[in-house]
Amino acid sequence: MVGYEQGRTGKKVTSKRRKVDTSCTSSDHSRAVEVVVSNEDLLTEILFLVPAKPLLKFKSVSKHWHSLISQPQFGSNHTCRNPTSLLISGLYFYRWINKERKSVSLHGHQGLPTLAFLDPVRKGTKSKVVDSCNGLLLFSNGDKLDYFVCNPTTQRYIALPQHGGSTSSGFWEQFGACLAFDPSKSPYYKVVLISYHFSFEERSSFYLIYIYSSKTASWKEMRAIAPLGGGSYQRRVFWNGAIHWMNSTYIHIRFDIDAENLTGTPMPKVPNILKEDKIQYFGECGGSLLLIQSREDSAMGFRILEMKKDCYRWIVKCKVNLRPICNAFPEGYTTLYIGC
User: Is the whole-model pTM more than 0.70?
Assistant: First the structure.
């Protein structure tokens, strides 16, 4: 390499690259591997840097690695170190005509993990996904209210025991079960069944709640006084440590998963919250709670409302009008459905 000194002399300066000896004998390599393997703290730190999918393959390296990677606390810490692992990698969906399950990858992969490993516990077309949360799926096996939780990535599942409560009201199937899982805070999840009841004698209403904890592998029952107002919307979502839903009188209801208490917050009447059949989407996206509503079934025009973690009120994030696009390409659009 030839260069020029930028000093007063203007003399030509020549420098030569020094060769670095990077050769490594097989014995040196073996000793380095032994150092890493024998030091569990060092090995753990290295494995924290490995993406989730390759990490699962590393379980087959040895029994020690399998045991280390399978620990719930390791999984929780790995998620905290790799927040991008919580990004949505794909979608599972149904074709209502023939009840066929399909999947689509959002990152260019050929497909998502198959759900064939669930065949021993699924009961044909009666089995369906009732909720999902941060990579876990909650299935219901129809009228008998048999629930099981699965992880498509690890191809593992667990069938939940019966909660033992009354199901005579038939409300469980209408309101659905809720799955609460935040791997950045805990390796454990909870399944929550909530039913609404009204006592004509006492002229009061309450929620009957059953909570399953994967940490204790058991159910618990509790009652909570329902906030005053109309009937509850069936759409619900786990966000910011609580399960959220609304009712028809501008009451925002949330059930705190850790504290196990239920609260209702009256919402301002501006912006206007439409009826439940006008809500196109209600869920978490990018750390915020989003509510997308449209007065039209085809959703050619809609509003996106946002709720921040530190403030329980809705703000209009944006308004979307797709009519100019649909008018320009009338043959390409019939009915639009919104997801996030």
Answer: yes
